[in-house]
Structure formats: structure tokens, C-alpha cells
Design goal:
By secondary structure, the protein is α/β, with parallel strands linked by helices. It has helices at 2-22, 35-52, 70-78, 112-115, 122-132, 136-144, 151-154, 163-186, 195-229, and strands at residues 26-29, 55-61, 85-91, 96-101. It has 2 domains: 23-116 and 148-190, Roll (Diaminopimelate Epimerase, Chain A, domain 1), CATH 3.10.310.50; 194-233. It is built from 9 helices and 4 strands.
Length: 233
């Protein structure tokens, strides 16, 4: 009997601990179910809240409740929180991602449109502006709308076994992006934020890529000029 009681006690403690862990900043997870993912969200979310007073919560849904829109669902959750809260929500089967807050003043600490942009780079945004803009104002709006940290990753191809990993990477990337922007706005440093390292790495990747493109264009132009000069030889 004592063995059974000890086993039951251990089980209750385990369930309680896991519930507390998931329910703090990874508020709901019906999709990922990976310990490492939960731990990383919790570490960054806890540090962000301790240093800024802002709670950044992540919700990973399999599907939205019947007859409930994304915004309605988010507002129902946000009504439960008294502290300043930013809610990032992903619904797999509905193919939706959204960010809402329980206090509109929180938007001054991060760029919601940038985080949710479907465009990753300035070059892509410029091309889309040329193709789709129907006015100068629309052109400038499209041209400046880039830097998305979630949707470009979610849109990427992945094999069946890699889809969950893709969801985890894209949502955590957005989570990091928002946390980093808030920390910069608040003038604090987050030890669990890899944002600066990611930005530096991304910068050098872009430098290498565009250098390669420019080199290719220069070589192409030189070849054309060479052929023209030697056409009659």
C-alpha cells in the first residue's frame, strides 16, 4: 500500500509540475509536444516577464473551436490575464497565425506588422511592390512591409516527419523576435535571447548572398561586352 501511495504521489507531482510548466508562457500546446521546445519558451518568457513586466504567451492549437474566429478566441483568453499580456496564437488546421494584446499600449514595444509579414527580405518586398502596387502609397506600404519572422518559415516546404519541427521553429522564431524587440524598447538585456546572434549571422548571410549576385551580374555584363567587342574578329 505504501508503495502505491508513493507511486500515486509521484504521479500527481509529475502531472502538476508539467501542467505548471506548460501553462505559464507556452500557455497551450496541442501541436508540438516537445520538452526542449517548452523549456526554451519558458526560459525566455520568464526572463522577459521578470525584467519588463510583460507576459508573452504562446498558444499552439490543432484547430480553433467550432464557429469561433481567431480574434474571438484570443480575446477570450486575454480576458483571463490581469498583467500586460501579448498572445501569439497558431492554429494548424486553420492555417492561421495572429498576435493580440490585452492593452493596445503594448504595440509600441514591438512591430506587429513586421513580425506577421509574409515577406522575409527587403528585396522580396520591393519586387512585390513593383508587381502588385496600384498607387505610390500602396507601393511604399508594400516596399516597407518585410522582415517577417513567422510566415516565411511556415510557408517553407517540409517532409511529413519535419512538419512539427517547422511549426516549432517558425513560432519560436517569432517569439524570439517579439521578446527581442520588447527588450530593446525597454532597454534591458535578455540572457536567453539569441536575437542579436541571429541578426548578425543573418546579416553576413545576406552580405555573402548579395555579393555573389552582384558578382554574377558583373561577370554577365563583362561577357556581353566581350562578345560585342570581338563580334567582327
Amino acid at each position: 500500500m505504501k508503495f502505491l501511495f508513493r507511486g500515486l504521489y509521484a504521479l500527481v507531482l509529475t502531472i502538476f509540475f508539467q501542467t505548471q510548466l506548460v501553462a505559464e508562457y507556452l500557455y497551450k500546446d496541442d501541436v508540438i509536444h516537445r520538452t526542449a521546445f517548452t523549456e526554451q519558451v519558458e526560459l525566455l518568457g520568464k526572463e522577459l516577464y521578470q525584467k519588463t513586466g510583460i507576459s508573452l504567451k504562446l498558444v499552439m492549437l490543432r484547430e480553433l473551436p467550432v464557429d469561433t474566429s481567431m480574434v474571438e478566441y484570443e480575446k477570450s483568453l486575454l480576458s483571463k490575464f490581469s498583467e500586460p499580456t501579448i498572445l501569439m496564437t497558431f492554429s494548424e488546421l486553420d492555417s492561421q497565425v495572429d498576435i493580440q494584446v490585452n492593452d493596445t499600449s503594448l504595440y509600441k514595444y514591438f512591430n506587429r506588422a513586421q513580425v506577421l509579414s509574409p515577406v522575409a527580405s527587403a528585396v522580396q518586398a520591393f519586387i512585390m511592390a513593383i508587381v502588385y502596387a496600384d498607387s505610390w502609397e500602396h507601393f511604399n506600404e508594400l516596399r516597407s512591409n518585410y522582415g517577417g519572422s513567422i510566415l516565411p518559415l511556415i510557408a517553407g516546404k517540409a517532409k511529413d516527419k519535419q512538419i512539427v519541427g517547422k511549426y516549432a521553429a517558425s513560432m519560436f522564431n517569432g517569439y524570439i523576435d517579439i521578446a527581442h524587440q520588447i527588450s530593446v524598447s525597454k532597454g534591458v538585456v535578455l540572457e536567453n535571447d539569441p536575437g542579436d546572434a541571429n541578426q548578425e549571422a543573418l546579416f553576413w548571410v545576406k552580405v555573402f548572398f548579395y555579393s555573389f549576385v552582384i558578382y554574377g551580374i558583373v561577370m554577365y555584363i563583362r561577357r556581353i561586352l566581350y562578345r560585342r567587342r570581338h563580334r567582327d574578329e
